[in-house]
Amino acid sequence: MTSNKIYRKPSFLIAIVPIVVLMILLALNVYIYGEDATYGPNQIALLMATAVATVIGFSLKYSWNEIQKGITKSIKTALPALLILLLIGALAGTWMLSGVVPTMIYYGLKILNPTFFLVAACAISAIVAMATGSSWSTIATVGLALLGIGSVLGLHEGVVAGAIISGAYFGDKMSPLSDTTNLAPAMAGTDLFTHIRYMAKTTIPSIAITLIIFLIWGVTIESKPSEEGVQGILSLLESKFYISPVLFLVPVIVIFLIIKKVDAVPALFIGVLLGAVAAVIFQQDLIAELGGSGNYAFDSYKASLGAMFDEVSLLGSDHETFTKLVEEFPEKEVYQPMIPSLAMDSQIYL
User: Which residue in 114, 175, 220, 266 has its CB near the most CB atoms, within 10 A?
Assistant: First the structure.
C-alpha cells in the first residue's frame, strides 16, 4: 500500500526563516554574554532555530516521525566529525605530555632559519594536514610546536599563526581523509575525487600566492632572534622533558597509518594511545611530579587521563613555576611569547 500524502515545498523566504532566526539569536547571545555565549546560550539558540524549522515542517504536512528521521540522519552524518574533534583534544594533550611537541620545538629551534620559517611552517602544516585529514589536529600538535619556534625566532605570533593555519586548512581541504571533504560531496551527490579536483582550481593558486607572500615577508621582515633566548628555551625544555628523536616515531606512525588509508578515527585514537605510552616510558620524572602519589602506575594513569580528558599542569600551577623559570634567564623578553605555547596557561585544555 502506497502513501498518497502530498508534501508542500517551502518558498525561498520560508526556507531561510530558521537561518535568519538563528543568526539573530546568535548575535543577541554574543551581545549579552560575550565570550561566554559558547558555553550554553548558543546551543539553546540552535535548539530554538530547530524548533522554528520543525513548525515550518508541520505546516508543510510533514509528520513528527518524518522530521525526527531527518534529524537522526543529520546527526549520524556529523558523528564522525564529532569523534575526530574529541580525539584531537586528547591527541594534543598526550603529545604534549609525552614530549612529542616539546621535541618538535627543540629540534625546530636548532634547524629552522627565520628567513624561510614562514614558508616552511605553511608547507609543513599543509603536508601534515593532508596526510592526517585534519586541520585542527595539525594546528594542535605540529602547529603548536611551530608557533613556539617562531616566537623564539623573533617572529610575530600572529604572522606565524597565519602561516600555520593557511597550510593546515589547505591540506585539510585537499585531503581525501578529511571529514568535511568527504561530507561535502556526499551532501551534494557527487564523488570525492571530483570534488577535490574542482577545489584544486581555486585552492592551489591560493596556496601558491600565500607561499610567495610568506617568502617575501620572511626575506624582508626584521626578526631579532636572541641566541641567549634560544639557548634558554632549549635548557628549559631539557630540564622538564626527555628530548629524543625517538619521540618522532609517534607522529610518524600516525602519518603512516593515514597513508595506508586507515580511517581517521582509529588512526587518531592509536596516536592518542601511543602518546600516552610514550609519556609513561620517556617522561617518568614529569609524570611522577604531576601524580605526586609515589605510585608510578597510579601517577601514569592519572597523568595520561588528565592529558586526554581534563587538564595537566605541566609547568606548575597558575604560571608560578614557569614564570620563575623564565625569570632566571636574562633574555626573558625574547621567549616570553612562548609561555602560552608551552604552558598552555600552565595547563593543557581539551
Answer: 175
